[in-house]
Amino acid sequence: MNPTLARAVPAPSPALALFASVRAHSAHLAAPLGDADATVQSMPDASPAKWHLAHTTWFFEAMVLERFAPGYAPYSPSFSYLFNSYYETLGPRQPRPRRGMITRPSLDEIMAYRAHVDAAIERLLAAGASPEAEEMVELGCHHEQQHQELLLTDILHLFAQNPLHPAYREPAPAAVGHEAPEAAWIGFEGGIVEIGHDGAGFGYDCEGPRHRTLIEPFRLSDRLVTNAEWLAFVEAGGYRDPLLWLSEGWAQVNAEGWAHPLYWLERDGLWWSMTLNGLQPLDPAAPVAHVSYFEADAFAAWAGARLPTEAEWEHAATSLGALPPQTPDARLRPKPAEDAPGLKQMFGEVWQWTRSPFTPYPRFAKAEGAVGEYNGKFMCGQFVLRGSSLATPPGHARASYRNFFQPDKRWQFSGLRLAEDA
Amino acid sequence: MNPTLARAVPAPSPALALFASVRAHSAHLAAPLGDADATVQSMPDASPAKWHLAHTTWFFEAMVLERFAPGYAPYSPSFSYLFNSYYETLGPRQPRPRRGMITRPSLDEIMAYRAHVDAAIERLLAAGASPEAEEMVELGCHHEQQHQELLLTDILHLFAQNPLHPAYREPAPAAVGHEAPEAAWIGFEGGIVEIGHDGAGFGYDCEGPRHRTLIEPFRLSDRLVTNAEWLAFVEAGGYRDPLLWLSEGWAQVNAEGWAHPLYWLERDGLWWSMTLNGLQPLDPAAPVAHVSYFEADAFAAWAGARLPTEAEWEHAATSLGALPPQTPDARLRPKPAEDAPGLKQMFGEVWQWTRSPFTPYPRFAKAEGAVGEYNGKFMCGQFVLRGSSLATPPGHARASYRNFFQPDKRWQFSGLRLAEDA
Amino acid sequence: MNPTLARAVPAPSPALALFASVRAHSAHLAAPLGDADATVQSMPDASPAKWHLAHTTWFFEAMVLERFAPGYAPYSPSFSYLFNSYYETLGPRQPRPRRGMITRPSLDEIMAYRAHVDAAIERLLAAGASPEAEEMVELGCHHEQQHQELLLTDILHLFAQNPLHPAYREPAPAAVGHEAPEAAWIGFEGGIVEIGHDGAGFGYDCEGPRHRTLIEPFRLSDRLVTNAEWLAFVEAGGYRDPLLWLSEGWAQVNAEGWAHPLYWLERDGLWWSMTLNGLQPLDPAAPVAHVSYFEADAFAAWAGARLPTEAEWEHAATSLGALPPQTPDARLRPKPAEDAPGLKQMFGEVWQWTRSPFTPYPRFAKAEGAVGEYNGKFMCGQFVLRGSSLATPPGHARASYRNFFQPDKRWQFSGLRLAEDA
Amino acid sequence: MNPTLARAVPAPSPALALFASVRAHSAHLAAPLGDADATVQSMPDASPAKWHLAHTTWFFEAMVLERFAPGYAPYSPSFSYLFNSYYETLGPRQPRPRRGMITRPSLDEIMAYRAHVDAAIERLLAAGASPEAEEMVELGCHHEQQHQELLLTDILHLFAQNPLHPAYREPAPAAVGHEAPEAAWIGFEGGIVEIGHDGAGFGYDCEGPRHRTLIEPFRLSDRLVTNAEWLAFVEAGGYRDPLLWLSEGWAQVNAEGWAHPLYWLERDGLWWSMTLNGLQPLDPAAPVAHVSYFEADAFAAWAGARLPTEAEWEHAATSLGALPPQTPDARLRPKPAEDAPGLKQMFGEVWQWTRSPFTPYPRFAKAEGAVGEYNGKFMCGQFVLRGSSLATPPGHARASYRNFFQPDKRWQFSGLRLAEDA
């Protein structure tokens, strides 16, 4: 074999397959959407689908191509302004609440932009990129996976504003309904445990450093709280008793008139829920979703329990070997727990509110440059959610993952699992 | 000739030709728009193009077909909720600031809805409709013409939010620039004059009754105020001198940071204006557009003049025989006055603010039913504009026409003509 | 007689007696107030009593003493900032919504400030002031009379915020209740009439120029609308029928939850009203007070009538010789009409909303300088009220007087009288 | 000795002396205030001084007298409505942002109310109250001490709104200015330590349970950050560099135009600070005060350090024996650190922001009833401050004390001390 030729064949890029699969998944998610669906912004917290598709693409341009692909010229000079999210380091940008004003470029044009960048990244990786470039591509893929989940939750929010209750996708044939199993406590001993990402495989900066922490003996429910249990809370007047609520939560309940989870709807005595499959009868056995931290905390108080800390949750998950799903699942609604002993539903149904504010781990330091803006600057006023949801792309979840939202947010697939002191 | 047969051939409907032409014009206006362009709402005052197209169609359903076409079933039961504008009489409706949330039905589906209603109206008219039905079709046509102008001003506002400054239509070859002629005063004597619609031809309720009014001798400028004149006002510090402004206007100037008309933009010392042809160099000789009543009033004070009353304007127009254009004009920007003696630009360039609040004429009475909600309930807090603009469909304008907006609104094609006491 | 001595005795100042009496009346109005009562601002529209007392004093300093009293030094350099109301010409000032933050100077200190300025003005007038100075003193007195009425309406608003419903003054012994007489129409012929101030005696700039106006034949109610009539409107669902309301008024009704006039309160099926005498049973025969233009207009629509124009009101008042009260009246609540024929209650009970927006009379021109800011800059978005109220100081009202407020304001003593076309 | 008589002499009440001294201190704090000063509310976060004086008195009525003093009748039935703060358990109440509307009762009347309740409590305690009643009196005293500090910070905020910059008390003779000593790090080893209140003496519920926690080796600055150091941060552009700030903090900086601590004022190149002694030259050696958590966090980032956790702070204080002042100090402004080795200024100057969100300690449980609303319901969205300030009453501070505020609040005496990882 000709050694010269051998040298000319670069080592296969570890990031290439991930890149191809992640980018294809975004296109799959966009398929049911029309140009208008993909353009409108239903609230400042949400972004248009088109924006998600373009922003994740811009991320590869700004973080990879402009730094590692010699001679790469940005696809369009205005796109950096239009599709930067919040990187102060990377210049001014379209104000977040005005993302829905951008009717042009159209969805088709955004898909052309994606194709252009895909080709450039694939060329770069095929030609043998530096480890640093490979790492940034990997980060860009995980970043895009986050936006894939947001694309779904944002579309759900948008369609929920439409009195016609359109379905993002038509529902699969209904599963045969079954009861949720009785919840059971699983006990854990206290002591010094280690949590946080250990550096093997991908992890966000805020997941580390891995460190010791002290936990006290506790018990964790073996499954998620269900719609039926939440309905009992509603019917017991849970939304009308101030003593169950945090002060700020009670103010929110009254200001917004909250009386049930987001997307619940009562018609003629029956409960429905707006879903990505359109308006559907509420499944009592399925986990409750679309509740805020305020609501989760009040429910736990009403139930005589509490929410777990994130350390407790992670310790339970790792010590009992709970693993996130690795294969795609076409479901767009949470499903009931299996009737089997042991810890269930840690991943793949709904994110689980913990009582832990999102704060830096000991010795956490922000990275230099734009990447340093990724998580650290949000460490204030938010609570950590653990696990993953049905909308989390396969391969994206792990036990050390720290999702976070403000305590009044409800449009994510957010639910809860109870804990108590042992 | 067989008299029986003769009876079976209905008289040609007077409204049919109008209906066909008006409906076709809306389709022409929608042609350059994509689904996203037609769906997004850029501010609560504006509506999506799709909404204009659907609402005007619903008007024919609710006001004509449901009342005069036996057996007509509404195209979709939800459309009445989605596309009612403000008729309390006709039931609940999508809240105005949320009109932009309706991504489905898509623009294509709205065009199908239009075709369905067009066919039904044409069948009704062809079969010989009652005079009352004919009259409602005529009202519906004039109503749709109002929305045609709004469709254009709303699209301009939407596209102006886009940093890319897209063009709704590409500009026609530029006219050879010319100077505006010197403005001259035209004098009018005072006395009792008659104004208001005399009942011949179509007119809105608020244009009548025709009545006597007393005017004092006055002078009116023979042309509109130009961009060059407005620029002199800007450069003289007009936006910084509180003594020129109404108190509420001055508060607005400061709250919004107004320093020039809406859509003006300074770049490297040159002035540009966002238009339906995209971003274009400011034409100094053309009439200023997109100024509020507050600005028009302050300009007039600065110029040592005042705005005319609506009675003065109408008396000038009718006594000197000013007529609105009757044929289509593809222009999307105002053009300079001709260099010719006499009263110019009364119609077809920009609406002209008057100093008259929009109030009922003597003996005005609201109609019964939903039609009574047309104008009377807005007789508070708005000022009358007279004339018409380049965006007003041909055939829609007349000397007695009373347009009206709140004094802070700027997104219409609104300009001014000066007056003074004689 | 020694001519030298004769020259030394200046002519008696025409303004001196007015000044002394007006200033004493303010002190009388302040007497029931504590330091806290006089300091708090209950809403941006209202001002603290202390502010009224100081601002009217500052007006004499800025408009008279600083211009006409040689060597006069301002009492305190900061007072111009603190107590200027809205004169852009006269420099920056405490923002209106922050007037209630000024706990120091205290009420006692403000009274000392008043005494200082009183002495200076009296010295100036006693020494023989120029006609221009006399005229400004007269303007200052009328200005202070306006604030005397506002002081009372603002205190009522403040005390109405207090759950204890304190009384500003204890009520006089209750009059024997009596029924209001049946309302009757008084007819007026149309034609060209003259309205506006004729220059004899004091008048504000906006009351002139006196001018001709054309009115059509009309009828005016001989008395004000009563609480009993308003209660019938309430009970007939007047606040729940959108067709009675102006569009903006209906929005206000819903946004604020209006269901009755300001200060009405229902307890156990009985109606009460918060008054300057504290909480009192509603007097059915007395004129309704504290209604907005929106409410007055809706009531008139419900009653099958309309509000008069200001020209109609003034013509009726002058042609029938209605005169305002000239002597003080200790009443703090409106009283029922006498049972006597003819036009009643034109003055001295409640201001009467007209359907006329506050606009300039023909040939009105703003004065030069700070005085020019008095009225002209408010000629937008307000409606004219005519007559006067029980809180109007004696000598302040006249037939040409134009009071004006925004159509949503309710804290003045504002009521209505019906009119209709003849 | 007659045993019957002996039994009749109750044991001296432990709470009586505390009660007398705390109540007298409130009167001392109120002495410089007029009725208006004590009534106005300068922002929703602040309360009128009168309200503090009355609310703390109502607390003794509701929590002690009504429960433990047989036959006690409330002083005024309306006071429970007026002066309840946030106890949902104890009924409806005057909305917090409307506390400043209550001009009556006057300050004198509130002082009479205080005297009435003082006498009743003293009678109760003198007669021998139950341990539970004694405990509630003690809680009421500590509660009142909290309001004593707030009374001062709220008055400072109110007086800072007044362009005259009035002084609450005239300043004491100025101390001889001196430089702050160089800051030095003090090192601490990591490990499991105990923090929290141990039950000996008074402590709030949220200070316990005492519990183990794991800390890593760290260093703590031996003194507070000074005004001079903060000025360097200002001059280095600290308020203009987004990378130093939390995302929410950066939004706040821009929305409010923050460019320096609250109460700083630049005039002709010199820096001043509004204080309880009026406007005073900024003391460069004194600790910076009136900074928010956002600012403290940004400063620490700029300085290459971080804020301590509350566990680190408490461990440092207790392991090095830092003690709060026990005797009154008439100072109303922070003073520079002594030039002496060791940990300084842990108490008595300014509260110190920690990076710890205010969360429940392990096994914390809310008390039953109204007392349970004391702290637990605020465990969301706030950060812990440790130490105490010059405005903290003597005897109120301790090492386990957890003060807490939202991260944008600046009107407290809040400063910072730096930490870093060892």
From TrEMBL, chains A, B, C, D:
Keywords: Iron, Oxidoreductase, Signal. Residues 20-149 form the DinB-like domain. Pfam families: DinB_2 (PF12867), FGE-sulfatase (PF03781). Residues 183-318, 339-419 form the Sulfatase-modifying factor enzyme-like domain. The keyword NADP does not apply. GO terms for biological process: ergothioneine biosynthetic process. Residues 1-26 form the signal peptide. Pathway: Amino-acid biosynthesis; ergothioneine biosynthesis. Gene3D superfamilies: paralog of FGE (formylglycine-generating enzyme). The keyword Signal applies. InterPro entries: CTDL_fold (IPR016187), DinB-like (IPR024775), DinB/YfiT-like (IPR034660), EgtB (IPR017806), Sulfatase_Mod_Factor_Kinase (IPR051043), SUMF_dom (IPR005532), SUMF_sf (IPR042095). NCBIfam families: egtB_TIGR03440. This is Ergothioneine biosynthesis protein EgtB. It comes from Methylopila turkensis. The lineage of its organism: Bacteria, Pseudomonadati, Pseudomonadota, Alphaproteobacteria, Hyphomicrobiales.
